[in-house]
Specification:
Elements lengths: L2 E2 L5 E3 L4 E5 L2 E3 L2 E2 L7 E5 L5 E6 L4 E5 L9 E7 L1 E2 L2 E2 L3 E7 L11 H5 L16 H18 L7 E2 L6 H17 L4 H19 L2 E2 L1 E2 L11 E2 L16
Helix pairs in contact: 2-3, 3-4
Length: 236
C-alpha cells in the first residue's frame, strides 16, 4: 500500500518553468518513485497544457503563459514504485503568481506559545505534520470561499497569518488532547474558536491579471453564516 501526500492542490505559475514533486510513503516511510513516469498538466476543460517525464518523483514543466491567473486545472501523474504502478494520480492545479505552498507559520513560532510544546510526537523532531495539516485546512477552505481557483490570485499572505497560526495551534492541541488531557482539549477548542473568529473577519485583496499588483479592495472571504463551535465538534 502506497500513500501519496496531497494535502494541498498543485500550484503552478504561468509563463515559468515550475517544479512539481510527489511525496509517496509505504508503511510510514518515504519511498523513491521510479524514473521515467509521466506528468501532464491540463486546463479545466481537458486541454493538455504541458507534459514531461518524471525523475524520482519530480518534474520541471514549462507552464504556458496562456493559463489564466487564478484558474483551476488539474495534473495527472502516471508513476510507479519498484515497478509497481501507483497512478494515474489526479489532483487540482491552481495557476498563481506567488506560491501558497509554504505555510506562513514556523515551528519555532508555535513551539514558543506554550510550555510543553517543545515535546514532539514520537519519532518527530518538529510539529511539521501539524503545520502542514493546519495550513492545508486553510487552503482548502480558501479554495471554496475565495476567488482563487476562479479568476484571481491572493495578493499577499500577510492577511492569512492569524488564521494559519490558530489553525496550526488547534492541530497541535488536538494531538495533545488525544492523551486524555482535559486541559489540552480545552486549549484545542479555544484555538478552534479563534481560528473560526479570525476566518470570519478575514479580508483579502486579489491580483486578477498576474502583474503582481492588487487590483481589488479588501474583500470579505467567509460566508456570512458562522459555524457553532462546541465540545461535540470533531475538528479536522
Amino acid at each position: 500500500m502506497y500513500n501519496v501526500g496531497l494535502f494541498a492542490p498543485a500550484f503552478v505559475f504561468p509563463g515559468t518553468t515550475t517544479t512539481r514533486s510527489l511525496s509517496v510513503e509505504s508503511n510510514g516511510a518515504a519511498v523513491t518513485v521510479d524514473n521515467g513516469g509521466t506528468y501532464k498538466l491540463y486546463a479545466a476543460d481537458g486541454t493538455l497544457l504541458a507534459s514531461a517525464t518524471t525523475s524520482s518523483g519530480s518534474v520541471s514543466v514549462a507552464v504556458p503563459a496562456s493559463m489564466a491567473v487564478g484558474s483551476r486545472g488539474y495534473e495527472v501523474w502516471d508513476v510507479s514504485v519498484s515497478s509497481t504502478a501507483i497512478g494515474p494520480i489526479r489532483q487540482s492545479a491552481l495557476a498563481l503568481t506567488a506560491t501558497l505552498a509554504n505555510p506562513p507559520v514556523t515551528n519555532a513560532w508555535v513551539r514558543a506559545r506554550h510550555a510543553g510544546w517543545d515535546v514532539y510526537p514520537t519519532d518527530e523532531t518538529s510539529w511539521q505534520a501539524q503545520i502542514n495539516d493546519g495550513w492545508g485546512r486553510v487552503l482548502r477552505r480558501l479554495i471554496s470561499d475565495s476567488r482563487i481557483a476562479e479568476d484571481a490570485d491572493i495578493h499577499t499572505l500577510t492577511e492569512l497569518v492569524d488564521v494559519a497560526l490558530y489553525s496550526v495551534c488547534e492541530r497541535i492541541a488536538d494531538f495533545n488532547a488525544t492523551f486524555a488531557n482535559d486541559a489540552a482539549r480545552d486549549l484545542q477548542l479555544s484555538y478552534l474558536r479563534q481560528y473560526e473568529d479570525a476566518y470570519r473577519v478575514l479580508k483579502l485583496r486579489y491580483d486578477t491579471d498576474g502583474d503582481g499588483v492588487a487590483e481589488t479592495p479588501r474583500t470579505q472571504v467567509a460566508p456570512s453564516r458562522r459555524a457553532k463551535i462546541g465540545k461535540s465538534v470533531l475538528s479536522g
